[in-house]
Amino acid sequence: MQIVRSGVVYRNMKSSAFLKDYYRSRVLDMIEGNEVYGSSPPDIFIGRAGYPNVYIGPLVPPTIGDTSIMGIPEKWVGKSIEEIVEFRSMLVRGMHRTNVNNADNGRVEEMIKELAISDKYELVRQEFSKRPDMRIRFDENTQPFGPSAILKRMELEGGKVNRTLEKAYSDTDMTASNAMVELYSKGIEVSRIQKMISAGTIGVGKNRKLVPTRWSITAVDDTLGKNNLKAVKENEELEEVLVYQNDALDNRWLIMMFPGSWEYELVEAWYPNTTWNRESSNIQIFSSYEPYKGRSKYAEIGGCYYAARLASSELLLKMDRQAKVAILREAHSGYIMPVGVWNVREHVRDALRKEPLRFENTRSAIEFITKRMDIPVKTWMENSAVLRQVTMQKRLV
Questions:
Q1: How far apart are CA 44 and CA 6, in angstroms?
Q2: To pair with 81 at 20 to 30 A between CA atoms, which of 144, 168, 194, 253?
Q3: Cβ–Cβ < 8 Å for 103, 208
Q4: In contact, 345 and 193? CB cutoff 8 Å
Q5: C-alpha dihedral (115, 118, 121, 126), degrees to nearest 10
Q6: What torsion, rounded to 10 degrees, do the Cα atoms 353, 82, 60, 26 define?
């Protein structure tokens, strides 16, 4: 099917170019002049360009009502890329320039913190220096959002504070790491904790600062995962081979857990025309691994590594077991645009909520890879330290 829009020919309605243009036009048609008034989920975005002088601001759709779904990635499992892009493209970003050390100085900075600790969607009025631009931002690490513009004035109306978040905000003696762990233990969503870090609302008072959204996402996944692993490493070893699987957004997942002390690896295979493989006509494979004692360098794969590790540690903690974990991911051609690290965390979590396949030995589990994944098992073995390791352990064969 061929579509013509704004003089541009699209041969595929589900192409990234078509979706970007369609939803960009849709939201801009709803914006009148230089002002947006609507219900923020609540959500905020802290940029990183020019750090430590960055742009901060709210994400607000030009609609009023319950928009909470737009800001909680934990609720997006089962949504299509089109659905996610549809509601995230509605979020208009106001941009206020500030220094990251000014978390406690300035009216906009204060309102950003208020949004971060809000209990639910909050009415926000944004007045811009000019009409928001035409860009919609897509990034593998952060959730997409819609048009942006320099913020001239901002007002909040009728918000309600979340008491658990407010308590953490008021405790200026607690470290950021401890605050993250405490909020997480009380059932606060990871995405909400990430906003708290980003807005500079937790941590020792004198150390609080604004944190770019991209960095806060990985910081929370990493911190919570490491904390879980302290307990996981004290557990007995898994006694059987467990394999979990999932399909979502044309990503195919296989989470394999083998008996043994904790080790972890994420291996990703990106097909041509997907986020990290735009130029090559061949499948590109990336992997990051950590031994029992962890790793000292940032993972080659980036934020996805820490998101999947957090999800894995949660299940092992629940099972009172430790294991060697290998996560295999195939990103197929239908994954036409990045939607954020949440995709990894939440879809691995979703896989681990399902009943696993149980194997008597490693050999039969490795053979299952051939049935489940498109890429040959030999290729996975060549790119996975964990898979090579477990196949050499005689007690498992």
A1: 31
A2: 194
A3: yes
A4: no
A5: -20
A6: -170
- Direct distance between the N- and C-terminal alpha carbons of the chain, in angstroms, rounded to an integer: 51
Residues constituting the chain: 397
- From residue 154, give the alpha-carbon distance in Å to each of 93, 126, 222, 228: 12, 5, 33, 39
User: 144-159, pLDDT tens digit by residue?
Assistant: 888 899 999 999 997 7
pLDDT digits (tens, 9 = 90+) for 255-296: 999 999 999 999 999 998 776 677 778 999 999 999 999 999
Phi, then psi, of 61 in degrees rounded to 5: -85, 155
Q: What does pTM read for this prediction?
A: 0.92
Burial of 102 (0-12, 13-18, 19+ CB in 10 A): middle
Sign of the torsion formed by the C-alpha atoms of 31, 36, 41 and 44: positive
User: In this structure, which amino acid lies at residue 77?
Assistant: V
**What are the structure tokens assigned to 298, written together?**
């940032």
8 Å CB contact between 342 and 73 = yes
